[in-house]
Amino acid sequence: MGIIYRLALVLAIIGAINWGLIGLFQFDLVATLFGGQDTFLSRTVYTLVGISGLLCIPLLFRAFEEDEVDTVTNDTRNSNAYTNMNYQTEFGEETEFTEEDRKRARELYTDDK
């Protein structure tokens, strides 16, 4: 995510907090901080929050890439920990391993250490 979108997201969150305060407590934090709703600074903050809300619209439709998921890259056994989950033993029969599978697994895991 680019710096512009991050900044827009922060401003949108600030705007959401301000609207929450207005809705719950009838307290406009921006107007209080900058001297009222009609001052230049308050109107600037309102405008920036509105623009940032418009910039955040594409984030709703953005497909997240697999490389954005935090995975363990140093350990090849867990590299697909979040993207390739296998629930086979949880919801069904356990896989039967042959002696050849066990031997191959022992070779793979003992060479790493």
From TrEMBL:
Keywords: Membrane, Transmembrane, Transmembrane helix. The chain crosses the membrane at residues 7-25, 45-64. Residues 100-113 have a biased composition (Basic and acidic residues). The keyword Transmembrane applies. Signal peptide: none annotated. It comes from the Bacteria. InterPro entries: DUF378 (IPR007211). Residues 92-113 are annotated as: Disordered. This is DUF378 domain-containing protein. It comes from Ureibacillus endophyticus. The lineage of its organism: Bacteria, Bacillati, Bacillota, Bacilli, Bacillales.
